[in-house]
Amino acid sequence: MIIITGAAGFIGFHLSKRLLSEGYRILGIDNLNAYYDVNLKKERLKLLKKASKGSDLFRFIKCDLKDSKKINDIFKKNKPKIVINLAAQAGVRYSIENPEEYVSSNLVGTSNLLEQVKAREIQHFMFASTSSVYGGLDKMPFRELDPTDNPMSFYAATKKAGEVLSHSYAHLFDIPTTCFRFFTVYGPWGR
């Protein structure tokens, strides 16, 4: 069983669809917030249900990652082996106006997932970060080892903090962990 957070989002939808086509069992989690079109998210979820061909290969739970009790219940009941955290409050400009949304989603939510990963036999934790962590770096192209100490937005700062939290848990609790820094993503079923 693979848990994919942000399963109704663009990347989560495409990843879930791909993994379903390979026969993996997916538990999608998303809070379906209105930052992006909720109807689009619901249509993506319908397609994922359809892609599971009537089986239980894809199940969905509406949940906000800041709800630690519900997250604990989900992990306890479903016993995932892999956790892919694609959920986040996105948007650079919105982070300036609503920083508390980014703290609760990107920091508290990630921390709640990491606590579950630490407490269980998870084979791999994957975390979606962003190219925004490179901040005002003017050296191109970016490289993974380039400094990310000066994010230029609150959104980027919370994603950088998520990378650091993930690294810390990986080190302290021997959790296999991978962080991805996505640049602009686009394609079918995008917003």
Descriptive report:
There is one protein chain. It is built from six helices and six strands. It is of the alpha/beta class and 191 residues long. It has a six-stranded parallel beta sheet, sandwiched between helices. The longest helix is centred in the middle third of the chain and has 21 residues. The model has no long low-confidence stretch (mean pLDDT 92).
What class would the helix/strand composition place it in? alpha/beta
> pLDDT under 50 segments (min length 5)?
none
Counting H and I runs of at least 4 residues, what is the number of helices? 6
Outline the biggest β-sheet: 6 strands, parallel
The percent of residues in helical segments reads: 40-55%
Beta-strand percentage range = 15-25%
Average pLDDT rating: 92
End-to-end distance? 28 Å
How many strand units?
6
Q: Order of strands across the biggest sheet? A: 3-2-1-4-5-6
Whole-number radius of gyration? 16 Å
How do the SSEs run, as a string of H and E? EHEHEHEHHEHE
Indicate the overall shape.
Answer: globular
